Amino acid sequence: MLNEKRAKHFAMGGPARIERQHSDNKLTARERLELLYDNGSFMEFGLLAHHQSQSPSMQGKFTPADGVVTGIGEVDGRRVAAIAYDFTVMAGSMGMVTSESR
């Protein structure tokens, strides 16, 4: 069950929205991070995050990873943290989970 949930969230906005990004010659957030980080060094955090808004307009909406890919890894051997907003989820808007400081 966890593997299924991870796969669903990893797909972000789904194949149609990913294809739309590609047709506009744009990369997804994870594709951009893959180019940035040293091979195999990126460790993602927050994959299973999702919105927790009480707003009626957000009820029933699926927002995998709250629309943002976050993690740490190495760039040229140096430890680096990054966030990348994914335009396949909420058009790249910042979600409540990732925007609030606690």
Number of strands: 3
Largest beta sheet: what is the strand line-up? 1-2-3
Q: In percent terms, what proportion of residues is strand?
A: 15-25%
Tally of discrete structural domains = 1
The termini sit apart by 30 Å
CA-based gyration radius: 14 Å
Sheet of most strands: 3 strands, antiparallel
Tell me which CATH architecture applies here: Alpha-Beta Complex
Mean of residue pLDDT values: 81
Number of helices: 4
CATH class: Alpha Beta
**Helical coverage, percent range:** 25-40%
| SS content category | alpha+beta
Question: CATH topology, what is it called?
Answer: 2-enoyl-CoA Hydratase, Chain A, domain 1
Topology:
Blueprint: H1 2-10, H2 15-23, H3 29-36, E1 43-45, E2 68-75, E3 78-85, H4 96-99
Antiparallel strand pairs: 1-2, 2-3
Can you put this structure into words, describing what you see?
The protein has 102 residues and is an alpha+beta fold. The chain has a single domain (2-99), classed as 2-enoyl-CoA Hydratase, Chain A, domain 1. The chain is 29% helix and 19% strand. It is built from 4 helices and 3 strands; from the N terminus they run H-H-H-E-E-E-H. The chain has helices at 2-10, 15-23, 29-36, 96-99; strands spanning 43-45, 68-75, 78-85. Strands 1-2-3 form a 3-stranded antiparallel sheet, with helices on one face. The longest helix is centred in the first third of the chain and has 9 residues, at 2-10. The protein is globular, with a radius of gyration of 14 Å. It starts with a helix and ends with a helix.
